Amino acid sequence: MSSSVETRTSIVWDYAPAPESVDHVRLKDRYGLFVDGEFRDPSDGRYVSTINPATEDRLADVAYGGPEDVIAAIQSARAAAPKWAALRPLERAKYLFRVARLIQERSRELAVVETMDGGKPLRESRDVDVPLAAAHFFHYAGWADKLRYGVNAREVEPLGVVGQIVPWNFPLLMAAWKLAPALACGNVAVLKPAETTPLTALLLAEICQEAELPPGVVTILPGDGATGAALVRADGIDKVAFTGSTAVGRDIQAALAGTGTPLTLELGGKSANIVFEDAALDQAVEGIVNGIFFNQGHVCCAGSRLLIQESVRDEVVAKLWQRMRRLRLGDPLDKNTDVGAINSAEQLERIEVLVAAGEQEGASRRTVACELPERGYWFAPTLFTDVSPAHRIAVEEIFGPVVSVLTFRTQAEAIEKANNSRYGLAAGIWTDKGSKAFEVASALKAGVIWQNTYNHFDPTAAFGGYKESGFGREGGPAGLRPYLRVVR
Ligand code: NDP
After folding, report:
1. Which atom of ligand 1 is nearest to the CA of 168?
2. How many C-alpha atoms does 318 have within 13 Å on its Cβ side?
3. Rounded CA gap, 332 and 417, in Å?
4. Which helix (H) or strand (E) holds 113?
């Protein structure tokens, strides 16, 4: 085992700072619960501050929904459900188009707030999260009057009131993934954002107001894990959709077992990014970097297990390390930043525990030398080699900027190692040979497989996992099915 946390060497890239302006952002001092089309105080008056993980500065106080608020939210949603379901599909579509356009209009503000609340680089929130959130509303607006064509020409109806719980890694985008198909199918939704990143969901609530969405069609219920637990167990919820950790997903599945309430779960992953010797290696290195350092590795489908064919292992590791040393970590609002802040102190601790386990178990660690800001939560890009498939860093989801390198000799071994996981969310295949890519893809037990690219998302494509990565699909026509009941 060896370990090296690099000390600053010759590579110093002096870019002029390029901070995004925050002057145009007008955050309120406090945000209530968005119930029945308006913001209101929580029944027990509880507000908690949400902070910027890059500075630890308070951004706003946000209401926490308690059990009484969950009941009130569901009552309001139930009252709105029949009218929304009976609305002509084309009219429902108009509302969704309006929401999509308003997201576009407020995109700068949404991107800045997403970055301040969550820590991700502005370049990502501006170029990925916000445009994709709008694209999901556009996409499902188009489906609203064509639902039958999305489900094999069957006759379908909405389920009613859906409870949706989203995590902190893509707060606005996950809200869009959940709300857009649910509403297009004629359901009404009660959505709980994550504790550490509630702000963009609350701005989305303002957008729903601006779009004059009928009260009760969308409810945003910020809070903590207890709010989420109360929501999934409440009477009057006709379907639950959850994205987050496998542990909580398991808990929700147990709570709903035997109730007949439909459930979709999008959970964790430990995805294999497989590099064959015939791949374009420079391109593959860019894909590896995008696969694991995008959003600080806080990505359920992150390519955190890097499988490299033995013959090119040294070359790929050398190129990767060289590329990693040029990543810029720091102020997420700076447009040059590649790696932003870790989302919370708790998440930083989880990453540190797993990285320490990697060292204790005998893997070799290399961590890029970065000047870490004094305040906030940071973890420098880290590469582990000499990793065995049994090491915790090869098995458990780290959800941070940490990649574990394993090797293989043959295609069969690559497939076996890639599938040797309790997860099955995503995989990447890097090869010049189309036939090899198809052969490997069809043998991999993963819901999403990219060839010669990674972390590419599109509203028309289905996303979801196998095994402990969950079940059900989001995106594209497949994303309609979980929100519809087939009548005939
Ligand atoms: P959680 O699964 O706890 O959080 C996801 C969402 O579920 C949040 O809105 C959370 O609320 C809510 N929640 C928490 N407990 C319950 C409950 N008992 N019933 C219903 N809803 C609940 O993820 P963590 O934030 O704790 O992250 C832990 C680990 O999970 C990470 O290190 C990562 O490995 C993994 N993870 C995976 C994600 C994925 O997309 N696959 C996303 C996020 C995390 P609140 O935030 O208020 O606690």
Report:
1. 43
2. 4
3. 35
4. helix 107-118
Vertex 126, ends 121 and 131: CA angle to 5°? 135
Alpha-carbon distances, residue 334 vs 104, 118, 330 (angstroms): 21, 14, 8
For residue 365, give the H/E element and its range.
strand 364-367
CA–CA separation, 249 and 255 (whole Å): 10
Among 33, 195, 245, 352, which is best to mutate for testing ligand 1, by the most ligand atoms less than 8 A from CB?
Answer: 245
What CA–CA distance (Å, rounded) separates 50 from 60?
Answer: 6
Backbone angles phi, psi at 454, to 5 degrees: -155, 150
**pLDDT tier for residue 411 given thresholds of 50, 70 and 90:** very high
Q: Report the phi/psi class of residue 236: left, alpha or beta, with left for phi > 0 and alpha for psi in -120 to 50.
A: left
Residue nearest to atom 24 of ligand 1 (CA): 245
300 is catalytic: yes
List, for residues 96-145, the tens digit of each pLDDT value.
999 999 999 999 999 999 999 999 999 999 999 999 999 999 999 999 99
> Closest Cα partner for 324 from 338, 335, 310, 334?
338
Alpha carbon of 400 to those of 21, 245, 282, 318, 354: distances in Å? 27, 14, 23, 21, 10
What are the φ and ψ backbone dihedral angles of 57, each rounded to 5 degrees?
Answer: -80, 145
If we measure between CA atoms, which residue out of 243, 250, 244, 203 comes closest to residue 222? 203
Q: Categorize the per-residue pLDDT at 8 as very low, low, confident or very high, splitting at 50, 70 and 90.
A: low
Q: In Å, how far are 357, 367, 478 from 6, measured between CA atoms?
A: 19, 6, 46
- Do residues 71 and 115 make contact, with C-beta atoms less than 8 angstroms apart? no
Q: Is the overall model pTM greater than 0.85, yes or no? A: yes
* Ligand 1-lining residues (CB < 6 angstroms): 165-169, 192, 194-195, 224-225, 228-229, 232, 243-245, 248, 251-252, 267-268, 300, 347, 350, 397, 399
Ligand 1 atom closest to Cα of residue 267: 41
Kindly list the distances between the CA atom of residue 162 and the CA atoms of 185, 341, 445, in Å, as whole numbers in the listed order.
11, 32, 29
In the reported structure, the alpha carbon of residue 423 is separated from the centroid of ligand 1 by a whole-number distance in angstroms of 16
Tell me which residue has its CA closest to atom 14 in ligand 1.
225
Length of the chain: 488
Catalytic option among 185, 208, 300, 370 = 300
- The predicted structure's pLDDT at residue 37: 98
Known catalytic membership, residue 468:
no
Q: How far is the CA of 121 from the centre of ligand 1 (A)?
A: 21
Q: Report how far ligand 1's centroid is from the alpha carbon of 47 (Å).
A: 20
297: closest CA among 361, 392, 393, 202? 393
